[in-house]
């Protein structure tokens, strides 16, 4: 970081969040190569969770608990399944992985007072309690961190894109977002370039990309979403068909005159790609299952888009409300894009929706 950064708002939070996300990314990338079948559980909502998700949440919450002990955390995972007898094997593995990560040698930019380095192993109880620091209900006031330790767990299991996502809300407004993408090439135009990027944005201070393997010493690249035309525009959309209505996206694309094929990518890596100009519109429309979006799936990505000069809203153009609790609640889909195309996308959604309603009446 530059010398004058300590004077900036949220400088300490930014440094800690980048360090915590970087450590969690090293953990998840290394665990992927060693995962065995018994290290994945299916949650009540039928979605997967792995030892990688639990131990990344343990690591990040441990660091936040030490550095900002009064700040509550809304995290995706909880430790209930690890506290029962049948969870012993998973629990042991998570304790081992989290401690390997927390006790790794300090890197430039990290401080031992954050509870990092060889002398800072935790007990199993401390790590389970750290995971459960993420049980906060959220709400409209105060400082609240929100964490998705592995966003795109299905992508992670496929060896494709996933992201470690951390954001700080202050009175329901996202002030800081950090996203680690261990499998994303550092050069947008070259899929064969080195993989592993960290993206971060602070309100009023811009959005940046850093190399994952040199987060504090490497060059930071300022991000700006370029303007686009129907010929250059494409959509960034979910891989999982149950997560967003891809047929609706296709119709919106036709209305806008989009000719390029969509890019399908798991996780908030989609927001990162958009922020660096690698894709034009993040479009996520509900499939009609009644699923409610979670704040940790969009908070960090939303500030990255805004600080890269873009706009994020729901499918009606309404702002996303991060102050309603753990759920985004009342949003109808999500649209993120450059400023020049956002209104056009909202108008195209309105038209596609009207067509759909007319069809269902006839
Ligand atoms: N039914 C349904 N509808 C919409 N969204 C859902 C649904 N189920 C899950 N999720 C959330 O989707 C998160 C992953 O989102 P992605 O955009 O990465 O989806 S996709 O994998 O690219 O299809 C995923 O995040 P993780 O659980 O962190 O992987 C979920 O929070
Ligand atoms: Mg999940
Ligand atoms: Mg997620
Ligand atoms: Mg997750």
TrEMBL record:
The keyword Magnesium applies. It is an enzyme of class 3 (hydrolase). Mg(2+) binds at residues 76, 148, 150-151, 297. It comes from Dichomitus squalens. Keywords: Hydrolase, Magnesium, Metal-binding. GO terms for molecular function: 3'(2'),5'-bisphosphate nucleotidase activity; metal ion binding. Pfam families: Inositol_P. One of its GO terms (biological process) is sulfate assimilation. It catalyses: adenosine 2',5'-bisphosphate + H2O = AMP + phosphate; 3'-phosphoadenylyl sulfate + H2O = adenosine 5'-phosphosulfate + phosphate; adenosine 3',5'-bisphosphate + H2O = AMP + phosphate. InterPro entries: DPNP (IPR006239), Inositol_monoP_metal-BS (IPR020583), Inositol_monoP_superfamily (IPR051090), Inositol_monophosphatase-like (IPR000760), Inositol_monophosphatase_CS (IPR020550). The keyword Secreted does not apply. Its cofactor is Mg(2+). Its EC number is 3.1.3.7. This is 3'(2'),5'-bisphosphate nucleotidase. Belongs to the inositol monophosphatase superfamily. It comes from the Eukaryota.
